[in-house]
Every structure is written in structure tokens, then in C-alpha cells.
């Protein structure tokens, strides 16, 4: 039952929020996200012991039920969603936003969709939540975004809509394969997929994978991402990069790898090579960006490229590494965006050539920025390290040469990340528009992030334990 | 003896606590208190290390690795957070905390006027913590944690005066070059794990001799080579050495601690630690020896024509590290560690001495503007002279014994290595005495203001100099050559952890001869240096001298073949592949859709918002219908 709460709470408060004017929406959102996080924590706590499930009939005539399942991976991602959304609301709780009722309403609806995606164990339900998560983002981006928001939203829409349609077609095709009445249940979809002839699996692979590849995104399906990140308001960028990106990764693990194994086997080398090219390609482009948001966007493509490559290697350590890294990447990139939004807020620009001296004018902010940046380049004893080590381990087992190429990403990553720190943090102080270091709520949000960065860096065991069972299962 | 090794966790814990206190309260902490906390933390570590040292020295059986908690467990990958207490790690503990403590004390005065002093001590403690992790780890992963940790601290400390663009550039360069090496280390680690299923030293070295698990020579060679690449990054060897001289941008005590006495010796530690592996593959050892020797010579030639007091010392460090790699490469691991120790003493002394000089000169580092400083700074002058004598290898001083041991080991291996080594040693004597003469003797060449300001440094700075000077003299007597003493204390002590290979006994006559040759040539070079530089003329240099002054243009070369092409490639990818290629394609698709939409204007409004709205509406209706009606 508690699984349903994870979806219902943000859904209801989200709808309610549209009716509220002014101040109230912000408080409602904060309250809602706090309760949701509590529920997510309980689900994760139970996740150590085993899976929790929930099921009720929905549309029996087309073979779909409202069934949810929380195993280690799902509960870990729900927890991440809970944490990230709370942090987002927390750091924004002292900022004015136009039409707060609608803004927070869309944010909460998107959260409900995300929770649903991570929990659904029915293909149609999964698809519905997938769309529920995405649609609010179109609105958020097109109404609260930057100057070029309409063009960018259009691009984002075209990309994801094409992917979604193909995904839907693929899932319907699979549901019809069940003997007798069609079924969308996860177990039936897997059974149906596995029974398909090899050639069918090969084209079905792309039908399903494209939607996920766009979401992660994987080279060359990524070009919506830097623009969208740049133009979206930062809270939306955080939802996109910390959570929606994981949605794509999660979907690969849950709805692609086990479903069409022969297709995966056939295309895995292609995808791995694509991903590794993406790592180097995105890292190179990140080096020449001057807008911090675009720089982080490309660095995220590089990080996801590594995860995606490893997903297709069949290495259980690698798979475990993906689980760990999904969580940690979500935490770190949230930290990055939070600071970036503060930079934009206070200096009125994200252009690195016009920034500098944060270490003098806002030292607390600078420390937080340096810490999360170091975590994002996987410095040992920050949370980024363990996952990255396991990922490289996974890639190395079967693809030594590719691992070394992918490994250049850690060098290039150091180059662009330290460049960013140097240009924003060091040097002489540039005057701030609002001359203020961190406020209380911003400090609280960043402390949550930094505690997680350091704790999971030194003692990653809880995260590893939560996800160890499922990692082995996917590989089999 | 007490059971000190069970308290080994205290050794890194004290600096960590020091870092946390100073790091969290850096804003409100009074400077003096911050300095005291920083020093005490290291002193406490040193005391525990001393206890451990005596226990290890008297221990009969090797002490088992001490496991604290499960760090990383996934499938068959199981890496505990564990420490290894043996002679090798213990000796490094003493060097790090001992020399580290003196440098901390020195810093209280040197950095006394800096507003960031508390932050400085926080970084310094964090550095010591990382370095201790590096040497204490019982497996390669823990070593790697410390390995990257010292890289970070070095980054933070080189760029300590972060307002200066050049300094932060130097910091970035150091970190990135280290990362290149780190990638080698990482690949080496993965190779070990994939082939041997473990990362722990004891298990890995055990597996090497497991007859059931004989790996092809090539696998072992790759592992050894990858580790060595890691070592070239951290220990500043060809081709990754160029960051070290630039690292002199940091405060001078940092140069002494990180870039001379400890961090850069990490590569030596790693290879000495892996001696069981390297002994099996002589081919890679040759590579190590050749790279080391080449670095020793190259860096020495550059040092001859530098005018920045710290740059001379920086290149001398690179050169001395090259000597240590030469020792490793000829299988004399214990000798390399011996030189690490003596070098830590005299190089820390020389750097701190140069700091004292820079302090007196009001920040001036150009030796062309110095001269005659000895009259005003007697303690600095005398201790610096002792340092020069030690590094040049004058009999009786510590550097003589360790350098002689390296050269004899090289001679055992191949007389050519010996001859080239002697050449590097001659250059060392030359540039060190050139530096000494230009700085401390003759007439003052700076401004009147500077001359007026000249003074001996306070006791907090001179006391560490005196202690280090004493160590630089007596430090060598733990490793006496065979002809002088039957008992080589340091070789015996280290033999429980490190196994030398390929060394054979030298005739007493040969050994006397080798010592004689090196002493004579070094003395000659000192006389030459003295006579050339006592009446200096600083003309615009030409020809070879100019090439040396510009460091063989290696930085320019790297810029031309790596940095610039990479930058250009990235620009091209960004401008063309990304914006025109991929983006163009997608936008093309988008535009054609839009064009189609325009043609059907009568039916559709052509606005994205409207489309989305219709779609949402449709989904909601379907959802609701299916839920309530169809059921």
C-alpha cells in the first residue's frame, strides 16, 4: 500500500496545487515532498529485506493491471527521487516564481510520474507513467524557460515524442504475443519477448531502445539535452538530469535487457561503441563550453555514456556499479545545478568568462561547488568513485581497449571540471548582484547533498547492499 | 614492546581530525590556534608511528593486515578498508610524519602573515592524511585513494593563492598530469583484479608464485607497465614530469613537503611495494631504469640554467627522483627507499632554506638579484650549505651513502648506467653550488630596499632547518656500504617487506674505486661551479644555454602536439559535428514536420502548445475511460 502512496501523494498535492494561489503552493510542495521522501525511505528500508508489491485490476480486457513492484533498484530510485525533489523545493523555497500554484503543480505531477515509472511492473502502466512524468516538463520548459524556450521545447518534444511512440508500439506488439488474451504484465512481456525469433528481437530492440537512448541520452540521440538544460528553469533541469536521465537507464535495465536478450546480444557491441564514442565526444565538447549549464550537460552525457556502455557488458560488478552510480550521479548533479542556479541568481550570468572569485565573495558556496565538482570527477572518498571504479571494472572485463578509451574521459573530465572551478571560483571577485552567501534553506539543501557525497564515499555499503541482489539478477 | 600496531588507525586519524577542525572553523579560528592544532595533529601521528616502528623492528613474525570495515563488496570483488603495517610502510610513516611535522612548525612562521593560514593548515593536514592512507593501505585500492588524495591536496595547495591566474593554471596542470598517470594505475589495478581476482598485496604476491595460476609474461608486463605509468605521473618522470617545476607556485613549505619530501615519492613506494611483481619481469625493470636515468640527466641539464631559486630545486628533485627510479630499475629497491629518506631530509632542508631566503628577500626568487646573503643570514647559509654538500654526495653526508649505493647497484648491472649516473651526479654538484654561490656569497645584487630588509628568519623557521641539517648529516649512517660496515641497517630492516633482485656482491677494491671516482668528480665540479659563478655575468644566453633555459622547449612541444590539437578538435566537434551535423539533422526533421503542419493549417493551429494540450487531453480521457467504463 505504501507503494501507492509514493505516487498518490505527489499526484494529489500536485492537482491541489493548481488551485492554490501564492505562498501556499510552495509550502504544500515542500510538505508533500517531505512526506513522500519519508515513504520512500520506508520502502527502501523494506527493500533490504525483499520486494514489496501492490496490485489491483485496471483494464482486464486488454490485459493490463495496476501492479507495482519495489525491488532494490526501484526503491533506490524512489529514494533518489524523494531526496532530489525535496532538495529542489528546499533551495527554491525563498525564491519568487511566476504562478507558483501551476509551477509546483507540474513539478509534483512529474514526481508522481517518475515514482510510477520506477515502480510499475506492467508495461502499459509503465508507459502511462512515462508520459505523466514527461508532459509536465513540456509545460514547465515552455512557460518558465529562458528566451529560446519555445524552439527548444519543440525540439525536446519532437525527440521524446518520436521515442515514446516507438516505445508504445513495441510494448503493444509484445503484449499481443502472449498466448490467449494479451497481457502487459512484466513477467508475461519478458516471456513473450524471449520466445520471439532472433530476427524479430533484433528490430524490436531498436523500437524500444530509441526512447530510452533519447532519455539517457546516448550519442547521437543527445542533441536535445544541452539546449533543454540550458533553457529550462533550474528546478526543471534538476528533475531532467538527476531523475529523468535515470528513467532511461532504469528502463534499459528493466524493460529492455531481459525482454529481448537475443536482440541485446546482437546489438550490444554497437551500443557499447556508440556509448564510448559518446564519452570522448561529449567530454571534448564540454571542454570548449563557456556556459556552465551546457558544460554540465555535456559532462552528464559522458557519465551516462559510461553507464550505458556497461549495461550491455553482462558484467555483474558493472551492473552493480550502474545501480550505485545512478544514485550517486543523481545526487552529485543535483548539487552542481543547485550551485549553478545560485551563481546565475547572484551574478546574473552563467558565462564563465564573466565570472570569478566565488571563493572570496561567497566562500561557503565555493566550498560546496568544489566538493560536488570533485565528486563528479570521481575523486576517491566521494560517492562518485566507487561506482566509477565498478563501472570501469565491468567494461574492462570484456572490452579492455574500449575501457582505456573510455578512461580518457577521467582525464578530460578533470580538465573541464577544473577549468570550470578555476573560472568561477578562483581569480578576483566579480561583484554579485545580490551580495549574499548561502541562505539557511540553501545551506540545508546543500548540506544534505554533501553529507550524502561524503558518507557514501567513505561507507558505500548500504547502497551496495540494497542493490546487490538485483544486479546479479539482471545479468542472468 | 607494546602493541602499537593495533592503534595504527590513529596515525591517519589525527591529521584527519586536524583537517576537520581547521576546515570547519577556518573562518572563526585564530591563526595561532589553527597552526598549533595543525602541528599537534602531526606530532601525535609521529609519536604513534615511532611506537609502531619499534614494534615492527622487534617483531618476529610479520604483522597481519588490520581490517577495519568492508569497503567495496560486489560479487567476487571484495575490498576491505585495511592497513598493512610492515617495515616499508612504517619507514614511510616516520618520514611523512617526522619531516611533515618540522615543515608544519616552519609554516607557522612562514605563513604567519597570510590571511588564509588556518585553511592552509587544514589542507596540509589533509595532505598528510592522504599520504598516510597511501602508504598504509593493504591493497591497491586504498593506495589509490591516497594516491588521488595527495593529487587533490597538491592541487589545492599549488593554487593556494588562487587570485593569481598563473598559480591556478599550475595547479590544474599538476592535477591533470597526475590524472594521466592515474589512468595507468587504474588500468593496472583492473588487470590485477581480472587476472588474479584480488587487489590485496599479500594475496596478489602470493598468487604470483602460485604454480596453478601462471600468467603469461605479457600480462604481468602490462600490469607492471601500467603501474609504472602511474608512478611517472606522481613521481614526475619522463614524460609526465613537467607539472612539478610549475608546482612551485604554491607556498614554499608546500614545495618542501609535497613536491620534494613526500608526495612525489609515492611512485617509488608503489614500485618498491610491488617488488615481488617487478622481480619477475626484468624487461620492465630495464624500462624503469632507463626512464629514471634519462629523467635524472634531462632534469639536471635544465637545472643548470635556471635562475629561479625554487625552479633549480624543483628540477633537482625531478633529477633525484630519476636516481631513485634508476635504483628501482636495477633491482635495488631498498636503496631507492634509502635515497627517499635521505633526500627527504636534505631536500626539505634546501626548500625550507630557500623559503627563508625568499622570506628575507620580500618574495624575490630570482638568484640574479641575490648574492652575499650569507652575511645577514648565517643559520640559513650554513644549513643550506650542508644541504648542498649532502645532495652533491660529499663523503660523510647522508646523500653520499645513498647515492653511492645507487651508483654501485647500477655498476653491478651495467657500467654504462654507472657512467651516465656519474654524469648526472656531476651536474647535480655543479648546479647546487652554482645556486649556493650566487645566493649566499659575493655582493648583493638586489635593490636597496631589499638589502635593507634582509634579516635572519625567526626561530620557528631556523629550528627546523637546524634539525633537518643534522639529519642530513647523520641520516646516511643507517645504510653504510659493505666495505665500511658489515651491517646495513636499512637493508636489513626493509628486507622483510621488499626483496631486492639481480644484485651481486662487489669486490672491496671495486667499491673503493667507485666511491673514489664519484667523490673526486663531485669535488671537481664544486670547484668549477665556485670559480665560474663567484663573479657572475648575466648575459643574454644563446645556443644550447638558451635551450636549457627554456627547458628544452618541452612545454611548448606538449602544447603543440597535445593541448592545441585537442582544443582544435573539440572546437570542430562543437561547431560542426554537434551544431551543424546532429542538431542540423534533428532540426531538419523538426522543420519538415512544421512545414507539413503549415500546409494543413486549416485543420491545425500549428502551435506546439495546442498539440501538447490535445495529446494530454486524449491521454487523460483514455485513462479515465478505461479505468471507469471499460472495466
Q: How are the SSEs ordered, and which strands pair?
A:
The complex is a heterodimer of chains A (476) and B (631).
Chain A: H1 2-19, H2 23-49, E1 52-59, E2 64-70, H3 72-91, H4 100-119, H5 123-144, H6 149-175, H7 186-195, H8 198-215, H9 224-231, H10 234-256, H11 261-287, H12 292-311, H13 316-347, H14 358-361, H15 363-376, H16 383-398, H17 400-425, H18 440-458, H19 461-475
Antiparallel strand pairs in A: 1-2
Helix pairs in contact in A: 1-2, 1-4, 2-3, 2-4, 3-4, 3-10, 3-13, 3-18, 4-5, 4-10, 5-6, 5-10, 6-8, 6-9, 8-10, 8-11, 9-12, 10-12, 10-13, 11-12, 11-17, 12-13, 12-16, 12-17, 13-15, 13-16, 13-18, 13-19, 15-17, 15-18, 16-17, 16-18
Chain B: H1 10-24, H2 31-58, E1 66-74, E2 77-83, H3 87-110, H4 117-136, H5 140-158, H6 165-196, H7 201-208, H8 217-234, H9 243-246, H10 252-261, H11 266-273, H12 275-278, H13 282-304, H14 309-329, H15 333-360, H16 378-392, H17 398-413, H18 415-440, H19 448-453, H20 459-474, H21 489-494, H22 508-533, H23 543-549, H24 554-599, H25 608-630
Antiparallel strand pairs in B: 1-2
Categorize the overall geometry of chain B.
Answer: globular
- Show the largest interface: A-B, 71 and 64 residues
pLDDT < 50 runs, ≥5 residues of chain A: none
Biggest sheet record of chain B: 2 strands, antiparallel
Range of helix content of chain A: over 70%
Strand content of chain A: under 5%
Keywords:
heterodimer; A: 476 residues; mainly alpha; two-stranded antiparallel ribbon; 19 helices; 2 strands; 77% helix; B: 631 residues; two-stranded antiparallel sheet; 71% helix; 3% strand
Can you characterise this structure?
The complex is a heterodimer of chains A (476) and B (631). Chain A has a domain at 267-476. In chain A, β1 and β2 form a beta hairpin. Chain A contains 19 helices and 2 strands. With 476 residues, chain A is mostly helical. In chain A, strands 1-2 form a two-stranded antiparallel sheet. Chain B has 631 residues and is mostly helical. Among the domains of chain B are: 314-538, no CATH class; 564-596; 600-631. Chain B is globular. In chain B, 54% of the residues are buried. Chains A and B meet through β1, α5, α6, α11 and α13 of A and β1, α5, α6, α24 and α25 of B.
